[in-house]
Amino acid sequence: MADQATEPMLTVDELASKAGVTVRTVRFYSTRGLLPPPVIGPRRVGHYGPEHLSRLALIEELQHQGMTLSAIQRYLDALPDDLSAHDLAIHRALVATWAPDAAQEVSRAELERRAGRTLSDGDLRRLAAMNVVSESGAGEGFRVDVGLLRLGVALLDVPIAHETLLVARGILLEHARTAAHQLTALFRDEVWGPFTEDEDDPERVESMKALSAHMQPMVVQALVTAFQRSLKEELREAFSAEGG
Q: Which among 5, 51, 153, 212 could disulfide-bond with 85, CB atoms 3.0 to 4.6 Å apart, if both were Cys?
């Protein structure tokens, strides 16, 4: 875990406190294989790093989406082994966008409290460019996407110009909408259509709704994983070409 080399290590009590769960929950997830084992330090004390914290946040978000622990385990098992805490945060943030109540109205003080830091006007513009925050319609305070906030704050210190963020956002939105349109058409024709032929059967309708709710995080996982791998390959080729 590369992130753990530079980030403070946590005891199980500290990890549970930061994640907002009980120590018993942490140990239960570890027993189920949902969390990797801790690093054993002096006096046989287990220590946890940022990957454990990000994984707990992802598990919590998947539970909010209605997934069972068995389904969550299958989801996590399908993730690449080399995902960092930052990669896991991306998965969690995108899964969270399926939640209908992801955006909340908050004051600037509350936004800064949740962000864990003071936010300058420039920081707010960058967060707005990433679609994390926007000004409230009432003219006071902000609407914040709580699922994206942690990731957005982490990107504030990355040296990328505001204009570049806007262009990048446009590129991502364009291709994301195309993928969403094509996937929706595919599932509508090949899955939902045959599945709901008997629309008068309430059990089939409820089953269809459950299928849709469980399918969404899986589609997000597939898209994010494919994009991360493609981006790594593109960056590797681009820098190799420059170096050559």
A: 51
> Measured between alpha carbons, how far is 120 from 111 in angstroms, rounded to an integer?
12
Domain residue extents for the chain: 2-83, 103-155, 170-243
Cα–Cα distance measured from residue 115 to residue 138, given in angstroms and rounded to the nearest whole number: 22
Out of 90-94, 119-123, 222-226, least confident range: 90-94
Q: CATH assignment of 2-83?
A: 1.10.1660.10
Reduced to 3 states, what is the DSSP secondary structure of residue 38?
A: coil
Beta bridge partners of 133: 144
Q: How far is Cα 55 from Cα 88, in angstroms, rounded to an integer? A: 6
Q: Could you tell me the pLDDT band of residue 114, with boundaries at 50, 70 and 90?
A: confident
pTM given for the model? 0.47
Q: How many CB atoms lie within 10 A of CB 147?
A: 22
Residue with the larger pLDDT of the pair 65 and 32: 32
Q: Quick count: other Cβ atoms within 10 Å of Cβ 98? A: 16
pLDDT reported for residue 3: 42
